[in-house]
Design a protein that fits this description.
Blueprint: E1 31-34, E2 37-40, H1 53-66, H2 88-91, E3 96-106, E4 115-125, E5 130-135, E6 146-152, E7 173-176, E8 179-186, H3 188-196, H4 211-222, H5 232-241, E9 245-253, E10 263-270, E11 275-280, E12 293-298, E13 301-304, E14 321-324, E15 335-338, E16 341-348, H6 350-359, H7 389-393, H8 408-413, E17 418-425, E18 436-442, E19 447-452, E20 463-469, E21 494-497, E22 500-507, H9 509-517, H10 524-540, H11 544-551
Antiparallel strand pairs: 1-2, 3-4, 3-8, 4-5, 5-6, 7-8, 9-10, 9-16, 10-11, 11-12, 13-14, 15-16, 17-18, 17-22, 18-19, 19-20, 21-22
Helix pairs in contact: 9-10
């Protein structure tokens, strides 16, 4: 349809004309694809390649200005002017009524207060009649504050009605979810809007003051500590004393009787803020806590203001402390008490010495006498009888016990070298009479084994009586036992083996031959007893003629 053909004619049947020559009626393309995304674009032509309506209007205005055509007989049509329709959600967008209120909260089980007044702000959104209640944050109040009720339509009663801005006024109580909020005043926009809508607002009320908060502020104002100190001195110390630390080496004297040894510690005194830190010096396999920090970095009170200050407190405030530890309180060669622990200071580093020479020239940094620190030897628990003494004592030396050291050369030289003795059991019981045993002494590891010889019709089962074991002498201590050796095994000697007494009555020929080879290590009476015993037996085994000649 051409726009210029029906200019000035009413839009009625018979007054519109159609171009019969026009054959293209397709719409122009308004979408393009770029980098895989579809993008819109403004059309350059209208339907059927006709000029756009905006272009036609521009052309029409130009033609009207250029050529003044006379109006038709009936003159121009008068068009009615309508007001632009604006929806309510557009007209009332971002228009919010603000009311200030408070509610009273009951405090249970508190001797200082019965109730507490908490202040809130009520926002009413005119676009959808929703409301939200916000409680302003109070610093260090300890109460969860902020948004109490999220934005929503608040129920008015049980009939499904909701609160409207017409229900709100100053001095009214707004009861929401069991909490009664008393409205005291509002802002200027709310007052102007309510009066414009024909609602007369009541006189504003003053906001009541919380008695507990008032008393708390009074207490803080009465204390001198509430006055903020100057930061100049603190900043000056930080800039001049940062990374400057006094280091003392000392000994920690344990007060616990179970910890009888002395621990080595390092005491750090930070000059920047007069804090103290104590660390232990651990040795390998000491069995102590792997974390060396004995006391974290903190200010240590030297003297408290009150003598009746409780010994167990969560935190000591500056009001309760009369004096803190300072560099003047540390003296070499003296014992200092820190938090109930006694530390003996025996040395310091070079920086500490220079600091004291500059700031305390009268302080003597040399020890009064040469202090030699000798750590007390760790006490070994008594032997409990399980396993050998050498194996059990390794548990006291390290966390992962190692096998005890052995004389490898002695083991190879005396491998399979055994001294055998014949012994009888010295027992007060008559049924043990006649029991014979073979006592074997192994030279490779100084152990003794006992084997009982079977006797026919004795009623005693022979066999192994004791496996290879090191046998201590009677009367020797458990911590330093003394074991039997070949020098103690003489004919007629009594060997006490774990409360059993054995008397040696005979010996092997190899024993005498071996002991004579090491005669410098064997006492003479032991060798004489063996020679006498073996000599008597050899005489009995000689031929009869020789025996007779000897008798003559």
């Amino acid at each position: 349809m051409s726009f210029e053909w029906n200019n000035g004619l009413p839009f009625l049947p018979g007054y519109t004309f159609r171009d019969v020559k026009k054959s293209a009626f397709h719409r122009p393309q308004t979408l393009t694809c770029r980098n895989g995304y579809t993008l819109p674009q403004h059309p350059s032509v209208g339907i059927g390649q006709d000029p756009l309506l905006s272009q036609q209007l521009v052309q029409q205005e130009i033609s009207e200005v250029s050529f003044e055509e006379p109006d038709m007989t009936y003159g121009p049509s008068e068009q009615a002017v309508y007001e632009e329709y604006v929806p309510v959600y557009v007209a009332l967008d971002k228009k919010v009524l603000c009311f200030y209120a408070y509610f009273m909260e009951d405090i249970l089980f508190s001797p200082e207060e019965e109730n507490r007044i908490r202040y809130v702000i009520i926002y009413y959104y005119l676009e959808d009649d929703s409301m939200c209640i916000i409680e302003p944050l109070v610093e260090n109040s300890g109460i969860p504050q902020g948004k109490r009720i999220t934005r929503q339509r608040l129920p008015k009663n049980e009939h499904g009605e909701h609160y409207h801005w017409k229900d709100l006024n100053l001095g009214f109580d707004l009861e929401v979810y069991g909490v009664k909020y008393h409205i005291t005043h509002c802002d200027a926009f709310t007052k102007e809007f309510m009066e414009k809508e024909g609602i007369l607002l009541n006189d504003p009320e003053p906001m009541p003051e919380d008695l507990y908060s008032k008393s708390h502020r009074t207490k803080l104002a009465s204390h001198d500590s509430n006055i903020t100190p100057s930061n100049f001195e603190k900043m000056h110390r930080f800039l001049t004393m940062d990374r400057k630390v006094l280091r003392f080496f000392g000994l920690w004297e344990h007060s616990d009787p179970q910890l009888r040894n002395v621990s080595t510690v390092v005491i750090f005194f930070y000059l920047m803020d007069d804090t103290v830190e104590i660390r232990e010096v651990h040795k390998k396999n000491s069995g102590r806590d792997p974390f060396p920090v004995m006391m974290r970095r903190q200010k240590i009170p030297k003297k408290l203001k009150s003598e009746t200050f409780p010994s167990c407190v969560m935190e000591v405030s500056t009001e309760d402390v009369e004096e803190y530890f300072a560099p003047k309180d540390f003296q070499l060669g003296q014992t200092i008490k820190i938090l109930g622990h006694h530390f003996f200071l025996n040395d310091c580093d070079d920086f500490t010495k220079q600091y004291y020479q500059k700031n305390y020239p009268d302080r003597n940094l040399e020890l009064p006498k040469k202090v030699e620190v000798i750590e007390k030897k760790k006490e070994i628990p008594p032997y409990n009888g399980f396993g050998s003494l050498e194996d059990s004592i390794q548990n006291c030396y390290s966390l992962n016990p190692k096998p005890p050291r052995v004389n490898v050369l002695k083991m190879f030289e005396n491998d399979k070298t055994v001294l055998r003795y014949l012994a009888r059991l010295d027992s007060p019981h008559p049924e043990d009479e006649g029991r014979l045993f073979i006592l074997s002494y192994f030279l490779s590891d100084d152990m003794i084994s006992i084997f009982e010889k079977p006797v026919k019709n004795s009623g005693v089962i022979g066999g192994k009586f004791m496996i290879k074991t090191r046998v201590p002498k009677p009367g020797s201590s458990v911590e330093n036992p003394e074991f039997y050796s070949p020098a103690d095994l003489a004919i007629g000697a009594t060997v006490e083996v774990f409360s059993h007494r054995f008397v040696l009555i005979d010996v092997d020929h190899y024993v005498l031959k071996y002991l004579e080879s090491i005669s410098s290590q064997i006492p003479g009476p032991t060798l004489d007893s063996l020679r006498q015993k073996l000599g008597v037996e050899m005489t009995k085994n000689l031929p009869a003629q020789e025996n007779g000649e000897e008798k003559e």
